[in-house]
Design brief:
Blueprint: E1 6-10, E2 17-22, H1 25-42, E3 47-50, H2 57-68, E4 78-81, E5 83-86, H3 96-103, E6 115-116, H4 125-138, E7 144-147, E8 169-172, H5 175-181, E9 194-197, H6 200-204, E10 208-213, H7 219-227, E11 245-250, E12 261-262
Parallel strand pairs: 2-11, 3-4, 3-7, 4-6, 7-10, 10-11
Antiparallel strand pairs: 1-2, 1-12, 5-9, 8-9
Helix pairs in contact: 1-2
The chain binds 2-amino-2-deoxy-6-O-phosphono-alpha-D-glucopyranose.
2-amino-2-deoxy-6-O-phosphono-alpha-D-glucopyranose (GLP) binds at residues 51-55, 82-83, 148-150, 156-157, 177, 181.
C-alpha cells in the first residue's frame, strides 16, 4: 500500500463498526484528525473524550496543525480524559494531565479550564469517580471518544477480567500493563500500581468513537476486538456493539484480521 493511502475494510456484515487501514502512521493520524475535525465543525460546543498513550500522538499533532491553519476551532470544546494513574501528581511528567498539556492542550486554542483529567491525588477516589460521571452526564455526554488499545485489549484502563465495569472506577493495573507502560518510566517499579478510569459504560455511551492503533504489537488485540467473541477478557470487543465506532489502523495493526477485507 502507498504510504499516504487509506483504505476502507469491511467484514460484509451490517454494523456500526467502520475500519480504515492506512499505509503509514502519518496517514492513519491524518485520517483520524479529519474525522475529529469534521465532527467538531458540526458542533462547536463539542464534548470530546481524549486518550493518552503513544498511539494518538500523531493525531494530536495533526489536530494542532489543523488548528494552526484555522481549520478546526477548540475554543468552545470541553474535554474529558479517559484515565489517570493513581496516585500521581499532575506535575509529574508521567501523569496523563502532564501528557495532555504537553502534547495537545498547549498546542491548540482550547480553554484549559474546560479540560478535565481525573485527579491522581484525590483523597477520595470513589467520590472523584462519581463526580466525574455526574459532570459528563450534566455536560450532555461525550460526543466523540478517542481511544487507543492496550496489547491485552484494554481500553482506557479497563483491564481484562470477568466483568465489564460501567462507570468511572479505581483499577488495579495488570502486570502486563505495568510492564508495557514501564517503557515510559525509568523502571517498572516507578509505574503506579493503580489508576482511575472511565468505565465501559462511559465509553459505550459516547455518541461516536474513534480508535487508533498502530504497530505489530497491537495486531492480536485488534483482531480479538473486531473479530473475536464479545468478552470482558478482551474489553475492546464490546465496541462491536457500538452504533458508530471507527477503527483507524496501520497495516501492522490490521495484519491479523481475516474477516475484514479491503472494499
Ligand atoms: C495505556 C492507556 C490506554 C492506551 C494504552 C495503549 O495503558 N491507559 O488509554 O490506549 O495504554 O498505549 P499506547 O498507545 O502507548 O500503545
Amino acid at each position: 500500500m502507498n504510504s499516504n493511502e487509506v483504505k476502507a475494510y469491511s467484514n460484509g456484515k451490517k454494523s456500526g463498526v467502520k475500519v480504515f487501514v492506512a499505509g503509514s502512521y502519518e496517514a492513519l493520524s491524518k485520517k483520524a484528525a479529519t474525522i475529529l475535525a469534521g465532527a467538531i465543525a458540526n458542533k462547536p460546543e463539542f464534548i470530546l473524550g481524549l486518550a493518552t498513550g503513544t498511539s494518538p500522538l500523531g493525531l494530536y499533532d495533526e489536530l494542532a496543525e489543523l488548528n494552526a491553519q484555522g481549520r478546526v476551532d477548540f475554543s468552545k470544546v470541553t474535554s474529558y480524559n479517559l484515565d489517570e494513574y493513581y496516585p500521581i501528581a499532575p506535575e509529574n511528567d508521567q501523569s496523563y494531565r502532564y501528557f495532555m498539556n504537553k502534547n495537545l492542550f498547549s498546542k491548540i486554542n482550547i480553554d484549559i479550564e474546560k479540560t478535565h483529567v481525573l485527579s491522581g491525588l484525590t483523597k477520595d477516589p470513589e467520590g472523584e469517580c462519581k463526580a466525574y460521571d455526574a459532570e459528563i452526564e450534566a455536560a450532555g455526554g461525550i460526543d466523540l471518544q478517542v481511544l487507543g488499545i492496550g496489547n491485552n485489549g484494554h481500553i482506557g484502563f479497563n483491564e481484562p477480567g470477568k466483568d465489564f465495569i460501567w462507570g468511572t472506577h479505581m483499577v488495579e493495573l495488570t502486570e502486563s500493563t505495568i510492564e508495557a507502560n514501564s517503557r515510559l518510566f525509568n523502571s517498572a517499579d516507578e509505574v503506579p500500581r493503580a489508576a482511575l478510569s472511565m468505565g465501559i459504560g462511559n465509553i459505550m455511551c459516547a455518541k461516536q468513537i474513534v480508535l487508533v492503533a498502530n504497530g505489530p504489537k497491537k495486531a492480536q488485540a485488534v483482531k480479538e476486538a473486531l473479530e473475536g467473541e464479545i468478552t470482558p477478557y478482551c474489553q475492546a470487543s464490546i465496541l462491536q456493539l457500538h452504533p458508530n465506532v471507527t477503527f483507524v489502523l496501520d497495516e501492522d495493526a490490521a495484519s491479523a484480521l481475516t474477516e475484514y477485507k479491503e472494499i
